[in-house]
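Protocol step 4 of 5: obtain the predicted structure for the target chain.
Materials: sequence only (see below). No template structures provided, no constraints applied. The aim of this step is simply to have a reference model before the mutagenesis design in step 5. Sequence pasted as it appears in the construct record:
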Amino acid sequence: MANHVTTRVTIDCNEAAQVVVDQWREAIEGMSNDDYKMVWKLFGIDAEDATYEWLIENIGSKWCYADDIYDNNFTLVSAWDWPNKFVEWMAEQVIALDEDAVITVTYEDEMPNFVGYHVYSNYGDRGDVIDHDRLTEMVKEAIPELSQLDEDTDEYFEMLQDNIWDAVWAWQEDGIAAE
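Step 4 output (structure tokens):
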């Protein structure tokens, strides 16, 4: 099971929507690092209302904090799954102000047990997710020598780990670029 999931959100929008994005960035940057920069605080609710059930329903994971922000790029860290409900909320806010806005998302858990991407726009949203088994197949297809090794050896594991992230990023980029 995934533990920490890293999600990167990139927002391409006009000046009107940029005002909202800037407000989010400023609010997050103004949060104390003592309690992490929990994204539920952007909803204006009290801490006692940020229950497990509320977080699952409105964020998409049991917790989520902003790890890094620059320009219109938000890096989020969450538990067990990507914060799809939170990102959907962001996308709805931005697209309501800019019908040409595009919100691009990539995510993966730390193993990676799963990886995915998602694109939100006024034309709808699309995305995909694949699991570790499919990633392993992709690496084996790209590096045939891996298939010749015994899966129980350190050499196999090291070769897989040395190449799996390149496969992740290439798959995400290809998926985002597809129309």
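Step 4 remarks: Helices lie at 15-29, 52-58, 84-97, 132-142, 144-147, 154-177. The chain has a mean pLDDT of 95.
Proceed to step 5.
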